[in-house]
Structure formats: C-alpha cells, structure tokens
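User: Fold this, then the next.

Assistant: Folding the first:
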Amino acid sequence: MFKFASLVALAGLATRVAAHGAVTSYVIDGTTYPGYTGFSPSTTPVIQWQWPDYNPTFDPADSKWTHMEGSISVYLYKCSGAFSSCTGSGNGWFKIDEAGLLSGTMYSGTWGAGQVLKALQWSTKIPASLAPGNYLVRHELIAVHQSNAPQFYAECAQIVVTGSGTASPSGSYLVSIPGYCKLSDSNVKFDIYSEAAKTITSWDVPGPPVWPNGTPASTTQGGSTSQGGSSTASSTRSSSTSSTRTSTSNGASQTLYGQCGGQGWTGPTTCSSGTCKVSNQFYSQCLP
C-alpha cells in the first residue's frame, strides 16, 4: 500500500502501438511506475490492469496518425476487497473528471483529446473526501474524428487511496462499463464535418455526470492541472494509431484500414488490400 499526493499517468509516443491511446506510465509522489505494454510484454511488475481479451489483429508500423477531436474522461471504481477479485463489473463506475469540446465549434474547436496530444499527459485530482480503499482508475478517450463512428480507447490501473475521507457516490453517478451509452445516442454517433457541426458549440461527454465531489479539469497546457484535494493525477496518450505504407511498382500504397484520401491528405491514395472508400471530405479509408 502507498500513500500518495498525486499520481500522473504519462503518455509516451511509442513507435509500435497498434491503437489510438495508451497510458505508458504513472507517477506517484515523484516515482514512476510503468503501465502495461501490450506490444512488448515485460516481467517488470506493473500497476496497470491487463485486460484479458486484448488480442491484436495486425502488426503495426512505425508511423503515427494523431487526431485532436475527442474527449477524455477519468473514472474510478471501488473494489469490495482485494485487487485479485476486482473485475470492475456491475454498476460501480463513477466519473471524477472529463473534458470534451472546450471551445469553438464541433467542426473546428478545441477538444480535450487535443490537449492530451499537446501535453502527452492528463492530470486529475482525486477528491479529498473520497473514502479510502482499493480502486480501479479508468482513463477513457473517445475519438470522434470519423463521422458517425466513435472510437473508444480505455485503460485501467489499480490504485490504493488512503486518507480520512468518508464520501462515496451513489445513484445516477454510478454506471456499468460497458453499458453506460449506446451507439444510437446523439452525443455518441454524430458527424463533426456536417454543416450543423460548424455552428454547434456544446457537446455532452458520454457517460454519467461528474461526481460533485470531483472537479472537471480545466484545459491542460503542457503540464498537469491542479484542483482541490488529496489527489491522483492521471493522463492518457493522445488519439493516435499506426498506419503502414508499402511500395509497389506504381508507387506507394496504403494497407487495409489505413487512410487513403481526404482534403489535405498527401499520403498514398491506392490500397494494397481492399478499396479506398470515402467517409467524408476529410477522410477516406482502405476497407475490405
């Protein structure tokens, strides 16, 4: 068990991550603990919970593909006992922080995910009033750059909260994950490139409201934010994924699921596998 004033999860730009987001390490009172590295298993103990169903389907390449549009949320889940039996199931997750559309319009505004990309970390205070115990902390990015196809990227870690707090959330602040939202929800399935999005200046981050004892983060500019209480600060990696490029006799071509077109795109426009299909004026993708 450890007592901490702050925990910061850092986001490194690893070159072979086959996903949009990853927490690479956590800092607790100045001590760095490695996160789970799915693409390079290690015997070094980590505090991050290893999801049992992680199963990569293809080998990523070195290039990274980042997106500013999306939200960041931080959840906690109190374990009833030891971490070994704490699975995060049931109606027990509550949100202590979130950042969605911070300013501007959905079409061209500033998003929480964009702040993560700039700072390569996200800091969140654990409420001082929170009852001590074993908790899971979940960092969740929702990338919305693809029209009507939100992409959820989340990772969890095990933390021990100590102190004299006695408060615990209840009622509408508690949700199950998965289960707190549906693809048909208007704040989940939408098109940021639509004409309507050019004038929309507000967006509800999916999930429950932030627990009042917690404090939504202000914009993070290259470092950690600091809001009241004995704390954990956490951050996740920016929205980024890997794409591969291979050369053919006709020039470069894109691999399956890679970007192959869109306004301003200067990369490959042909697919080595599948067909280049238009999603919107800014984005086309190689699909089966």
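Now the next one, as you asked:
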Amino acid sequence: MKLKKSIGLNIRWHRRIGLSLFFMIIFLALSGFALNHSLGLKLSNTKLSSDWLLSWYGLEQAASDGFELNSGDWLYQAGDNQLLLNQQKVAQCQPPLLSVVEIEQQLLALCNDALVILTAKGELIESFTQLQGLPADLTGLIAQNNQLYLRGESGVQTFDTDSLALAPSNISLLPVNSAPTALPESIKDHLKEQEISSSISIETLILDLHSGRFFGSAGVLFIDIVGLLLCILSITGLWAWVNNQRYRKE
C-alpha cells in the first residue's frame, strides 16, 4: 500500500513537471534541430534587420534621410553615431541630426548632444557640447545676415563660431533653414552594404533563444532551471518505472 502511494505521488509530480515544460521541450527540440542543420538550412546567410531587433542587440539602423548642401553634397548620420559627408566620416554625435546650415565656408550640424562645426570639405573644426554650455533644448539652426542663431524652446541665442560664445537675442528670425529629406539611392545603397556586417543572422537569433542569452542573464537562468527540471523529469520517470516493476512483482 505504501509503495502504491509513493508511485501515485511520483506520477503526479512527473505529470505536473511534464506539462509545465511541454512548450519549452518542443521549442528546444526544434531550435536544436535547426542549429544542428544550420549549414544545410543556410541560417547564417539569412540576415534580419528590423528596427526593434537591432535595437535589442544594441545596434542601430542608419538614417534614411539627411541634409543636402548647396554644393550637392549630403550631410547625414549613420546608425553608429557617425556623422558623414557623402561617404566620408567627419565626426561623431548623438542622434538625431536636427539641423544643418552653411555659413562663411563652414558647415554646422546640430545633433542631440553637440553642435559640430566643419569646414566646407568636412574637416572637423570643433564639437561644441552640452558640457561646454550648449543648451539642451535646441530645435534648429538659422543662418541670417551671416550670423548664426540657435533656436530652442527657451528662446533664441546668437552663436560665435570663433569664440564659441552664446548670447541671448530678440531678433525676429526666419524659419529654420533646412529640413531633412530622403537620401539619394547611391548613398542608401552604400549604407545597406555597411549594415550587412551589423545585421543579425537567423542562426544567431535561434542560438540566443535556444541558450536564453536573448533575454540576458535572466534568460540564461531560466534555461538552466528548465534543464534542471528536465533532469528531475527523467529521474521521476525512471523512479516511476522501477517502482511499477516492484509493485507488479509484489
């Protein structure tokens, strides 16, 4: 009688653990099968580049728009915080790229955290940051009468590119000089080529899901717990079979 109760209790727990792991066992089996046949399925050759997935992995897609200059050149920002003039990297600043103006043979680009000053050829002159006094609420740049103005939520200020000095201004300004427009196809094609190295393959995604790394340390811990429960499931199954054989003999 005691053996029968032990078998019943063991089977109940065996069923509970089995039901709780049902979907995980199927997923781990299918993902393991896919990884085992990765070469045949060409999983490493299939790239994923959705915004949310790249963001989850800490990668960013390059912008699809930028600012066209009077010379026909383009100033825009790539996904790795790089500021580019055509295909040349000229500076680093935090996105988004808010505004661009040309004044006195200089290019000025307003990013989220800095005002980048370049020569007409894209050589870096200065990067004026918020730590140096750049207001944090700026929304655009305006060039008017060879004077640069910074427009922000708190008002308008003049900016001297030589001394990097700011001063409040009450002048009536024209609208912001330019707005971002779609990049030409030649630059988009170049950006797509650069993005290939920073995209995520299906093989990497499946591997990270299979190991739990996709969800960080918590995901790895969860897979570890699943592994331990699978061990318990095997032990309870073996224990139930052994006790059942003993019960039949008795």
